[in-house]
Amino acid sequence: MTGTPCSDKKNMRLRDYNQLTQPRLAKRVLFLQAMLTLAMAVAAAAVGFAPALSVLIGGLASLVANAAVALMIFRDYRASEPGQLLSRLYAAEVLRILLLMGSFAAAFLMIDGLSLPALLGGYFLVQVLAPIIAAQTAPNARNHPGPTAGTGPGAPRETSDQATS
Questions:
Q1: Distance from C-alpha of 64 to C-alpha of 70, rounded to nearest angstrom
Q2: Whole-model pTM?
Q3: Residue 89 sits in which domain range?
Q4: Is 104 within the bounds of a domain?
Q5: 93: how many CB neighbours lie within 10 A of its CB?
């Protein structure tokens, strides 16, 4: 069963849009993670060197792990191969966990006086805030509502009064 030529064109545009913007969005998130890491480390320096270093290491651990995941997933990216993409996603998540565990273990073994709350706080804030900021400030966030906008349970529905007027 095939769709109408109009719906096929729309699906192609959405697919092309997603394939072109997802790697860009990943780069934007990585850039924001780097900026947040530096900003938080500078802010933590007001408290002391150990908290600043801890925040810096936590943010860098997030940045390095996410950069590795982005490279692994978007390398030769083909949306038409969902099985291969799913395998990459699982492998990338395992890699992320191993990189994070290794980074945190190495930091605590090699550097005395690190603050665990500052390190984990730096990691968490960089991990959570960067994608939120990237999504809110993306140039196409307002211009492209996405493939499911206007449909679904929360979408406004046309009432019988509106249909007859």
A1: 10
A2: 0.69
A3: 23-137
A4: yes
A5: 14
- How far apart, in whole angstroms, are the C-alpha atoms of residue 97 and residue 92? 9
Q: Which two tokens stand for residue 138?
A: 């993306």
7 within 8 A of 21, measured Cβ to Cβ: no
pLDDT digits (tens, 9 = 90+) for 113-143: 999 999 999 999 999 999 899 888 877 655 5
116 within a domain of the structure (yes/no): yes
Q: Look at residue 126 and tell me if it is in a domain.
A: yes
DSSP character at residue 13: H
Residue 130 token pair? 């960067």
**In whole angstroms, how far apart are CA 48 and each of 24, 107, 108, 111, 163?**
36, 18, 18, 15, 65
The answer to whether 29 and 130 have CB atoms below 8 angstroms apart is: yes
Nearest to 48 by CA among 135, 125, 114: 114
- What number of CA atoms fall less than 13 Å from residue 124's CA on the CB side? 6
Place of tokens 């092309």: 16
Count of domains forming the chain: 1
pLDDT digits (tens, 9 = 90+) for 3-16: 555 555 555 454 44
Helices 5-44 and 116-137: angle between axes, nearest 10 degrees: 140
- Please indicate, yes or no, if residue 62 is contained in any of the structural domains: yes
